[in-house]
Amino acid sequence: MFLGDTAVYENETYKILGRTSVDIIKSGGYKISALDIERHLLEHPDIAEVIVVGVADITWGQKIAAVVVLRQEVSSMNLKDLQAWSAERLPPYQLPTILRVVETIPRNALGKVNKKSLVTELFGSGTVGA
To answer: Is residue 128, in this structure, part of any structural domain at all?
Structure first.
């Protein structure tokens, strides 16, 4: 068993249930790489930084959310325009369905983003669609 595995201990044995990585989004039966989506979204001319996370959803399991920092010369971005631009680069099931534009993405002392904390801070702990 490794860090990030989910397991249960029953009858004196461990049963590994799977991974709990924040970089894998499970939406509508698909396992989606948040890192792949981030890489594509960083090609957008208006995006300076992006983090992609899964937000709990009662219907889909998780919805794909993009948290973006815009380039200094850009004042706004909307979800519809981001989806239209992304549709030329990503399959439909990988398109962000939630967009949050922020001034900065919080990082820890080592410069890393804690995606679990970011989800709670920006989207709360509840489930979308509930």
So the answer is: no
On whether the CB atoms of residues 95 and 34 are closer than 8 A, the answer is no
Query: Which stretch of DSSP H or E encloses residue 47?
Result: strand 47-57
Q: Give the pLDDT confidence of 39-79 residue by residue, as tens digits.
A: 999 999 999 999 999 999 999 999 999 999 999 999 999 99
Residue 77 in domain? yes
> Domain of 77: which CATH number?
3.30.300.30
- The strand pairing partners of 74, in sequence order, are none
Within-domain flag for 14: no
Domain span including residue 44: 21-123
Report residue 82: phi and psi, to 5°: -65, -40
pTM exceeding the 0.70 threshold for the entire prediction: yes
What is the pLDDT, as a whole number, of residue 82? Answer: 98
Please state, in angstroms and rounded to a whole number, the distance separating the CA atoms of residues 87 and 96: 10
**Domain total in the chain:** 1
Return the number of other C-beta atoms located less than 10 Å from residue 119's C-beta: 20
Which pLDDT value is given to residue 126? 62
